[in-house]
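Researcher: Let's run the pair from yesterday's discussion. Sequence first, then tokens, for each.
Model: Starting with the first of the pair.
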Amino acid sequence: MLLILILALFVIIVISFIIDNVILNPVVVMCSGFLVGSISFLASSQRWGIGLSVRTFWITILAIICFSLAIVLCNFLVKTFSREGKYEIILINYNLQIITVVTIFLQLFAVIFLYYSLKKITGSSELSKMISTYRTTLMSDSASDVRLPGLLNQILKVNMASSFVILFAGLYGRIILEKKKILIYFIPIIFYAIESLLMGGRLEIIRTFIFIISVVYFLYCYKNKSVNEANTKALSYSKWIVVILPLFYFIKSFIGRTAIESFGEYILRYLGGPLASFEVFVNRNISYDAPFGQETFTGLYAYLSKKTGDVVPILGWIKSPTGLWVGNVYSGLRRYYYDFGFLGTLVMMTLLGLFFGYLFCNIWKGIKENKLKPFLLILYSFFLYSLVFEFFDDTFFSTAITLGSAMQIAIMYIIYKLMFKKEKLK
């Protein structure tokens, strides 16, 4: 069944690409992630003694089809009901420079504040041990013991939001306005990467790369009125995988990962483990005491648990029939399936498709009509990593449906309005 799933995903990718010739459309992006995960699962299936059952195959493929149909629906609605009107976006350099400088100082303060906070709550002055202790405790039932100060959390949220908008503005200035001095606009996002590493995160760094690739891709489509050069550039960026994967592996011990596998085994487990764990989860009927909807809306429940004092349960590692550890993430589908069952999984994937479909279809329609929609592009690129890693775990409903995320989006919009203005074409 794994081979059939791989073939089905490949066919969906090809059909979706043929329809609009856009590599970064939501269906291609999400299915590419599932394709990589499925191939990695296949490469390790014999070693793990795990295959793909018919039941898991249909859950996965029907969920992807529902997501794809939601994109088709959005495309129809946008074409039918969207309003006309053309404009171009002018960068306001004065505001951009002020906001950038302020953000850099805030980021510098946040890095120092974060370092000393982690040092205090972990009781360690050794950087690697400090990061490892913080992350290990955060992923356990004792997560409340390593909570960061409230002020620091708020500063990190503001900095994250402003750093991504500043990065977009810098890329816009380089590609559309053809400005050359843009390095300063990368400084805030570098601080964001440092903060992520201090807290034991790696996916946040990959999120930044995905954001850059997405923004550059659509800006080139807008500038050249064609997808050909943008598609070529997107494919050329794939060479960075040769750099990212080894880096991903070699920094694991520094940030608290204790795996001792070889590079190949580690990467295959990391990419193929989630779907294999989902297969085990579905067919072993694994269950534990969790409130209704808690797995899908983890961030919301985590916020509520701070008020009630309840502990949000954490699902453990899956062990294969051959005695090897497979992983402790089960793909995004597992969260929906556990909370809402088979039909609920299809509903959640449809909702996910409607969100990304609305953003993508409006962005693409605007580009074809020679009008850019910067804030929608910022949001699409900011959340796009959720589609890339849906095969790995849900990072949209579980984190985006929170008061903190709403605040980040609001901050993004305020900063965007300060940096850009619309000027109608004559």
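Model: Moving on to the second of the pair.
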Amino acid sequence: MNSNVGIFWFAENTLVFKAQSAIDLKPDQLGFIDSTLQHQVEWEDNNIYQLFGLMLDNTDYYNFPRGRVVFNVDQNTSYVYLDKSLFKKHIVKKIKANFSLLDTNVRFYTDPHYNCFGSI
């Protein structure tokens, strides 16, 4: 298992993300490995977008489509939960590359929790 888990957004044609190696984390009782990263904290407190050359000060994390990558140990599969607007070939390719998911089983799910109030 070389895949990563973590969170991401798609803002101004850029995949903004923070990933952690799944191997460094322990699965929960259901066999899922998830990071403790929080969208609100990384965007609004840590200004993660600045690491990607974006100047989006004073924006809210929920105004951009976002998602989360988790790993299911029992199924040896990464699950990507994302805003439905991100389910496009070129964006999925970026997510897979940046979370080291190119050589692993991956399932994508749209999830209303990650719906954004803005648009891409």
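Researcher: Give me one sentence on the second I can quote.
Model: The CA atoms of residues 32 and 72 lie 4 Å apart.
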